[in-house]
UniProtKB/TrEMBL annotation:
Keywords: ATP-binding, Nucleotide-binding, Transport. It comes from Mumia zhuanghuii. The keyword Nucleotide-binding applies. Residues 8-239 form the ABC transporter domain. InterPro entries: AAA+_ATPase (IPR003593), ABC_transporter-like_ATP-bd (IPR003439), ABC_transporter-like_CS (IPR017871), ABC_transpr_LolD-like (IPR015854), MacB-like_ATP-bd (IPR017911), P-loop_NTPase (IPR027417). GO terms for molecular function: ATP binding; ATP hydrolysis activity; transmembrane transporter activity. This is ABC transporter ATP-binding protein. PANTHER family: ABC TRANSPORTER RELATED, IMPORT ATP-BINDING PROTEIN. One of its GO terms (cellular component) is plasma membrane.
Length: 240
């Protein structure tokens, strides 16, 4: 993959939900591109459509209008099987609630996506060890989620997202349950991983520290982009 490969592109995407109370336009005419090594932050008040947009670009949901091209595949015309494979192999997910399985150890949690992909045992253990080391948790591999701090649990979730070597990392309020100091450490880790591994990341967050580090910030209101800003820390394209 080249340095600036497009991991996902949403083109004039809309999503309408039909409810007993009528139609809800959760996403309206949103265009967004996330390239390898880029951190895109999506922010906006509660109900502004952040989760809806993340679901669309991650291939968990399909748009009502417009299109999403994820790892080169148009999600509107892809089959359910293709979408499932795309999500498993190309997308890493991190959620506010961590989503770890409580009976499994940290390394077993990280191993789950590789088991689903039927990766051989020897390769699995090498990749799990590498992913846990990348998030600084090698010493905690045998501990269950309840035996880890919130920040450590979120780092396990990040390792689980990374172990598939995704083109796209999707994170929905990843630091929402963490105290500010732990949140800052987790955000540093995410930013470092995005840049070092050249993964495209789209993160829904209110956290000003992450907004500050973003390459692009989209602000949503009632499903529509009301502001789009280029981050101050983006390296100039023609750096000497
Ligand atoms: N499956 C659904 N069916 C009907 N309406 C939905 C559905 N999913 C979301 N909505 C509506 O779409 C709008 C956007 O919701 P969404 O969850 O995307 O917002 P959000 O910005 O992620 O909010 P929060 O910050 O509170 O998580 C809301 O009005 C919500 O009620």
């Amino acid at each position: 993959m080249s340095m600036h490969a497009t991991a996902v592109r949403a083109e004039a995407v809309g999503r309408v939900f039909r409810t007993p109370a009528g139609e809800v336009r959760a996403c309206a005419d949103v265009t967004l591109t996330a390239r390898a090594g880029e951190l895109v932050v999506v922010r906006g008040p509660s109900g502004s459509g952040k989760t809806t947009l993340l679901n669309l670009i991650a291939g968990l949901d399909r748009p009502s209008t417009g299109r999403v091209v994820l790892a080169g595949v148009d999600t509107s015309t892809a089959s359910e099987e293709q979408l499932l494979a795309l999500r498993r192999e190309r997308v890493g997910f991190v959620f506010q609630s961590f989503g770890l399985l409580p009976v499994l150890t940290a390394s077993e949690n990280v191993e789950v996506p590789l088991r689903i992909q039927r990766v051989a045992a020897e390769e699995r253990s090498a990749r799990v060890a590498e992913a846990l080391a990348a998030v600084g948790l090698d010493a905690h591999a045998g501990q269950r989620p309840a035996e880890l701090s919130g920040g450590q649990q979120q780092r396990v979730a990040i390792a689980r997202a990374l172990v598939v070597e995704p083109a796209l990392l999707i994170a929905d309020e990843p630091t929402g349950q963490l105290d500010s100091q732990t949140a800052a450490a987790v955000m540093d880790l995410v930013v470092d991983i995005v840049h070092r591994r050249q993964i495209a990341a789209v993160v829904a967050t209110h956290d000003p520290l992450l907004v500050e580090r973003a390459d692009r910030v989209l602000t949503l209101h009632d499903g529509a982009v009301v502001d789009e800003a280029v981050g101050p820390f983006r390296a100039p394209l023609s750096a000497p």
